[in-house]
């Protein structure tokens, strides 16, 4: 019996040429083919492909193997965010070491508790959360998404802009009230997100009882660089064993494994699906590890360059630009 051919590794993205509309592309190495030209149903976007994910996947494998198609050089194209989602779900406090660091850092100044005691208490709290509690998820705006190489404008009203590198699951088939054991079957693939935060605006100051304000602190235009590509789940491997690294101007600031997650991708997707219906193309951001700007005492400023990588998902590179006064 003949051995079936090994699948060709590919990724999906959104691309454009100067002065031309964007198109959904399939990427193999440094080549891109326009899926709107080669698939029978002529998808106009990556979201169109995800809307038919179960049927589309075998066709995408066929495209990846077809060297006779009209392939373009990736280097000659503009790379946009890989997908324009209908819904964005963001997560906080989901990396064990990060949350322990926060607990220690936010001890009252007059606390009699030592740092070692505080860390032990926080570690016990994280173990209990993993066993008994639920993820902390809130809603983001698709309008905050920008491309993986676009400049990030730092708004004049934001005094403490910070970075948050996050593994992002992209939904491929609708999911409602699915179990953790079923959840990953609904994930088409993964991509990189940098979920920027205005730290000074996370908590309301006009009335502290209101609590957090995720609209102001998370959703400025361009505050969610996404991509470069969506890598199908079959090429990513275990999402609980990936390395996340963010460098600021060449200096490593975040460097952690997704093994440090309190709630893994499956539990995160399952949890969101208990409340609402996840749709094809939706993004589930899974939290950021230790090493944010507040930890280092160094927030983003004009001219900073962030370079983000996650195992197997490519490199995202964005430059910060201060907003020009009107």
How would you describe what is shown here?
With 326 residues, the chain is α+β, with helices and mostly antiparallel strands. It folds into 3 domains: 11-80; 88-94 and 135-322, Alpha-Beta Complex (Fumarylacetoacetate hydrolase, domain 2), CATH 3.90.850.10; 96-134, no CATH class. The chain has 9 helices and 20 strands. The strands form 5 sheets. The chain has a 6-stranded mixed beta sheet with strand order 7-6-18-11-12-15. A 5-stranded antiparallel beta sheet has the order 4-3-2-1-5. The protein has a 5-stranded mixed beta sheet with strand order 9-20-19-16-17, with no helix packed on it. Helix 4 (96-105) crosses helix 5 (115-132). The radius of gyration is 20 Å and the shape is globular. The protein starts with 10 loop residues before the first strand and ends with a strand.
């Amino acid at each position: 019996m003949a051995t079936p051919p090994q699948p060709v590794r590919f990724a999906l993205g959104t691309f454009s040429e100067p002065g031309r509309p964007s198109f959904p592309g399939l990427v193999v190495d440094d080549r891109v083919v326009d899926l709107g030209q080669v698939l029978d149903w002529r998808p106009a976007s990556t979201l169109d492909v995800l809307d038919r994910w179960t049927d589309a996947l075998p066709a995408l494998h066929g495209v990846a193997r077809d060297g006779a198609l009209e392939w373009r050089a990736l280097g000659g194209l503009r790379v946009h965010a890989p997908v324009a989602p209908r819904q964005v779900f963001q997560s906080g406090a989901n990396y064990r070491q990060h949350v322990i660091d926060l607990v220690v850092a936010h001890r009252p100044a007059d606390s009699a508790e030592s740092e070692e005691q505080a860390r032990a208490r926080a570690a016990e709290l994280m173990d209990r959360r993993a066993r008994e509690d639920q993820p902390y998820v809130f809603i983001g705006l698709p309008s905050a998404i920008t491309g993986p190489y676009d400049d990030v404008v730092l708004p004049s009203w934001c005094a403490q802009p910070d970075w948050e590198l996050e593994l992002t699951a992209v939904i491929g088939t609708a999911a409602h009230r699915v179990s953790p054991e079923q959840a990953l079957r609904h994930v088409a693939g993964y991509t990189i997100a940098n979920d920027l935060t205005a730290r000074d605006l996370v908590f309301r100051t006009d009335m502290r009882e209101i609590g957090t304000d995720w609209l102001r602190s998370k959703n400025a235009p361009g505050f969610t660089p996404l991509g470069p590509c969506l890598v199908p789940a079959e090429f990513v491997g275990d999402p609980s064993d990936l390395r996340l690294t963010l460098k600021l101007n060449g200096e490593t600031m975040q460097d952690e494994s997704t093994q440090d997650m309190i709630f893994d991708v499956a539990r995160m997707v399952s949890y969101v699906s208990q409340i609402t219906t996840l749709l094809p193309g939706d993004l589930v951001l899974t939290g950021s590890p230790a090493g944010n700007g507040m930890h280092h005492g160094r927030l983003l400023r004009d001219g900073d360059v962030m370079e983000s990588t996650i195992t197997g998902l490519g490199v995202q590179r964005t430059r910060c630009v201060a907003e020009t006064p009107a």
